[in-house]
Design a protein that fits this description.
Elements (H helix, E strand, L loop, with lengths): L1 E2 L9 H10 L3 H4 L5 E2 L6 E7 L2 E6 L5 E5 L4 E5 L6 E3 L17 E4 L2 E7 L2 E6 L2 E6 L4 H6 L3 E4 L4 E10 L2 E12 L5 E7 L5 E4 L7 E4 L8 E4 L5 E6 L2 E6 L5 E2 L9 E2 L2 H13 L17 E2 L9 E2 L5 E4 L9 E6 L5 E7 L3 E6 L3 E7 L5 E7 L5
Parallel strand pairs: 2-27
Antiparallel strand pairs: 1-17, 3-30, 4-5, 5-6, 6-7, 8-9, 9-10, 10-11, 12-13, 13-14, 14-15, 16-17, 18-19, 19-20, 20-21, 22-23, 24-25, 25-26, 26-27, 28-29, 29-30
Length: 374
């Protein structure tokens, strides 16, 4: 695998294995975690989808839905069941080459990071503008956006190299959409990888990513708060809009040994998501010593009540979808459990949107009140 020659940081496989192993702290493993569930769904959109990746609720209750496998972006009405295509695939003005997340930036305004060359701006379900490569925020982030908020900022990560070798951390940057002004707000460990060579003549690093990779992850909330999921120990740190930080306590986590049973379960899950056959377990190297709490890259979810949802990595004994719910004090309020064929793909003002697959693999969008129960 190759990565562009812009400075990038990666940890060594040995250091990564030690960090993942350190996540399983015995006193925390003994803590009881409250298991939570959603109340019954109050609406279902019966349109079938192949792979819903994002649901963005509008003020009138309609939902912009992204299906990356079918390459569709549609707007659906949960009351009438009507579904309408938004624009069309293409490279022209107002068109999109790929169906990517449509991110809220305030009111019914949204942005889709089309590519490093342009962003698409939405007003409700309509594409109303295209930002070109020389727009301040597009140029400053090079299209590598980790999230947006409603206060006029986008967030990106910049990688710093140590000479001709990869370093061991990266920086999180907050960029003004209007001016491109950039502020450094956090330092993160990067995606774990084993470098196979120095920068080559084309300015690229050569590196190999382990079978199960974990990095420190970040997500901004619409109100300007930022959550950073740390690895050593597993915890969530919070940055308030005024720059104050709250360091979270270590979260309850019990390490599960990555034995043959877990390796095979992981490869079976991977095979279920791919059209092409996956490699046999015996040919895979670089396994961590234990199942990490999550796998990178990961979609962290921002709930309407200000809490963070961290999708947990499944295991052989826990194939269901689990989300650790962490408040802004850095404390876990409980763990939301869904069936293995369901996952949260977005939130509204007081709702959670779930993509649920039937036995044929067809997905439907369901809406649930965001009122968790034990």
């Amino acid at each position: 695998m190759r990565t562009p020659g812009t400075p990038m940081l990666r940890r060594s496989l040995m250091r990564w294995a030690a960090m993942v192993s350190a996540l399983g702290v015995d006193p925390l493993a003994a803590q009881q975690v409250t298991r939570l569930r959603l109340p019954p769904a109050n609406a279902t959109l019966h349109e079938g989808f192949s792979s819903i990746t994002w649901a963005r609720e509008l003020k009138d209750g309609r939902v912009i839905i992204t299906d990356n496998r079918d390459g569709r972006i549609v707007v659906g009405d949960m009351r009438s069941g009507a579904v309408a295509q938004i624009s069309r695939k293409g490279e022209g003005p107002g068109e999109y080459p790929r169906a990517l997340p449509v991110r809220a930036i305030g009111g019914d305004s949204s942005v889709m990071i089309d590519s490093p060359r342009r962003w698409l701006m939405f007003d409700g379900p309509r594409i109303v503008a295209t930002l070109p490569p020389d727009a301040p925020a597009v140029a400053a982030t090079k299209g590598l956006v980790r999230g947006v908020d409603a206060r006029g900022y986008v967030y990106t990560a910049d990688f710093v190299a140590a000479g001709n070798r990869l370093g061991d951390s990266t920086v999180l940057l907050r960029v003004s959409r209007a001016t491109g002004r950039t502020d450094t707000i956090a330092r993160l460990s990067a995606l774990v990888a084993r470098q196979t060579s120095a920068r080559n003549k084309d300015g690229f690093f050569e590196f190999a990513i382990p079978a199960v990779a974990t990095a420190e992850e970040v997500v901004p909330f619409g109100d300007g708060w930022v959550a950073v999921v740390r690895m050593n120990p597993y915890r969530v740190d919070w940055r308030a809009p005024d720059g104050r930080w709250t360091r979270g306590a270590a979260l309850p986590f019990q390490a599960v040994t990555m034995d043959d049973k877990e390796k095979r379960a992981y490869m079976e899950r991977l095979a279920a998501t791919r059209a092409q056959p996956v490699a046999p377990v015996e040919s895979i190297t670089g396994w961590p010593p234990s199942v990490p709490p999550y796998q990178s890259p990961i979609v962290l979810l921002t709930a309407p009540d200000g809490r963070l949802l961290i999708p947990r990595m499944p295991s052989a004994d826990h194939p269901e979808m689990r989300y650790d719910i962490v408040n802004r004090r850095g404390v876990m309020d409980g763990q939301l459990v869904l069936s293995p064929n369901a996952r949260i793909v977005g939130f509204g003002a007081g709702s959670a949107y779930v993509a649920a697959a039937n036995d044929d693999g067809i997905q439907h969008l369901e809406r649930y009140p965001w009122k968790l129960k034990p």
